[in-house]
Amino acid sequence: MTTNPDPKLAQSLDAYWMPFTANRQFKQAPRMLARAEGMHFWTPDGRKILDGIAGLWCVNAGHARPRIVQAIQQQAAEMDFAPPFNMGHPKAFELAQRLVEIAPTGMNKVFYTNSGSESVETALKMAIAYHRARGEGARTRLIGRERGYHGVNFGGISVGGIVANRKMFGTLLAGVDHIRHTHDLARNAFSRGVPEYGAEFADDLERLVALHDASTIAAVIVEPVAGSTGVLLPPKGYLQRLREICDRHGILLIFDEVITGFGRLGSPFAGQHFGVTPDLMTVAKGISNGAVPMGAVFARQHIHDTFMNGPEHLIEFFHGYTYSAHPLACAAALGTLDTYAEEGLLTRAAAMATYFEDALHALEGLPHVIDVRNIGLVGGIELAPIAGSPGKRAFDVFLECWERGVLIRTTGDTIAMSPPLIIEKAHIDELVGTVADVLRKSAA
Ligand code: PXG
Ligand code: PLP
After folding, report:
1. Alpha helices of 308-375 — where are they, by DSSP H?
2. Using a 6 Å cutoff on CB, does residue 130 contact ligand 2?
3. Measured from the CB, is residue 322 less than 6 Å from ligand 2?
């Protein structure tokens, strides 16, 4: 047990093994949240905290929105659970229909999961099974990208490219390879929006096709904008080129839109923002505004139809979760889509992007800032690491911002911001201004 100045508190914190957290350090000096509304959290002792990261990239409509709260309350009383295998409930179908209406054209089938990680596993399995159903059963290889984040399950960390998330867990999935990442500080530092240089990084897929042969490759999975790894934007033309190479070789393209989905970039999905439509698309987070766990995979019609050719009384896809299409999640998601529609939130990031961009790029020249990246309502500020202590510089900024009532997120030495899409200009001033003050003080 960790020591703690308050023995009663230490005891109460002991049992919870926290995810992606320095447990011993946290329990020495816990950061607790007790309440949330709109753009803010409140701590148990009543301190107000500006939410600069939409919870964890998920509370896109802001906290405790009435339609979502009511939908969950009503659903809990009306029907708490319904089995999703061989049974249905109306909201699951209504939600799928509503989701398809805002999805990229042609992505008109929805498979439910409970998280981004489960969405990724589902999409990878769909890709392999699709090729098998078409008689190309040798297409089993999965291609990810260096620095990619696709959740924490075995498929996701195998195609993922974040070393710390992989190295503790053995040999992972067989038959996985990676294209190179797109980060190029030397050529692209301080780009406003998508960087100019690096479309040719997509050609790295041709290298893997030459090595493995296209006939062995099922799918390529990438985040249109890589979030978790530190906000890496696709160079101009990069995603189009990836699409072309996939088409040339019969490889499925999977966009992992767990972060970019539901308005983060200023369009409902990144595929629409960049004008590139994938074959499969994974989502989670903003689908239910973070209020009840939920995820989904969108598939193009022809992929779905490929599965629908066996005897009609047989299951077509041997996959699904106990909590797929959970009634509370479906109710929350319907309330979320209503809120997005009523307030124009799926395109609001486009309207706020320039103000956010200007605020972020004003940080150029402040101590330790080596890059600023932005798109829609996502910002990344990369700091020069402290020699011998990677990640510490940014984490110290995070701690100081918390003391000053602003919640940001760090990954390595990059600060990430992804505020709720309801953010106003004054909140942007406070969010970015606080980071600026902390950076200035850090040099003093
Ligand atoms: N794919 C992508 C692109 C993600 O960003 C997942 C899959 C996994 O989703 P779940 O719901 O299983 O966590 C994610 C999740 C961060 C951070 O700080 C990002 C995520 C999760 C936790 C922290 O950047 N993204
Ligand atoms: N483990 C056991 C023993 C189970 O019975 C089940 C589901 O029935 C699972 C795991 C999978 O759980 P879930 O469907 O919630 O992913």
Report:
1. 327-343, 345-361
2. no
3. yes
Q: What are the structural domain ranges in the chain?
A: 31-52+344-443, 67-343
Q: Does domain 67-343 have CATH number 3.40.640.10?
A: yes
> 274-287, pLDDT tens digit by residue?
999 999 999 999 99
Distance (angstroms) between ligand 2 centre and the Cα of 322 equals 7
Residues 6+ apart with CB under 8 A from 68: 61, 288, 289, 291, 332, 335, 336, 339
What stretches of 224-288 show up as alpha helix (H) in DSSP? 238-249, 270-274
pLDDT the model gives residue 127: 99
Q: What is the pLDDT of residues 174-208, one digit of tens each?
A: 999 999 999 999 999 999 999 999 999 999 999 99
The closest ligand to the CA of 121 turns out to be 1
Query: What was the pLDDT predicted at 19?
Result: 98
What's the burial of 440, exposed, middle or buried (CB within 10 Å: 0-12/13-18/19+)? exposed
| Tokens at 296, concatenated | 């989904």
DSSP annotation of 233 reads P
55 pLDDT band, cuts 50/70/90, is very high
CB-neighbour burial class of residue 30 (10 A; exposed 0-12, middle 13-18, buried 19+): middle
Beta bridge partners, 271, equal: none
pTM of the model: 0.96
Task: Report the largest interatomic distance among the alpha carbons of the chain, rounded to a whole angstrom.
Answer: 72
Please, which pLDDT band fits residue 443 given cuts at 50, 70 and 90?
confident
CATH class label, 31-52+344-443 = alpha beta
Distance CA 348, CA 259 (A): 16
- Residue 168 CA to residue 32 CA, distance in Å, equals 29
Give the total residue count for the chain.
444
Confidence band (pLDDT; 50, 70, 90) for 116? very high
What's the token pair of residue 40?
């803010």
Task: Count CB-CB contacts under 10 A for residue 307.
Answer: 17
By alpha-carbon position, which residue is closest to atom 18 of ligand 1? 228
Q: What percent of the chain has pLDDT over 70?
A: 97
Cβ < 6 Å from ligand 1: which residues? Answer: 56-57, 115-117, 120, 149-151, 223, 227-228, 256, 258-259, 284, 409, 411
CA distances from 213 to 157, 174, 205, 218, 292 (A): 23, 16, 11, 11, 42
pLDDT tens-place string over residues 155-177: 999 999 999 999 999 999 999 99
End-to-end CA distance of the chain: 37
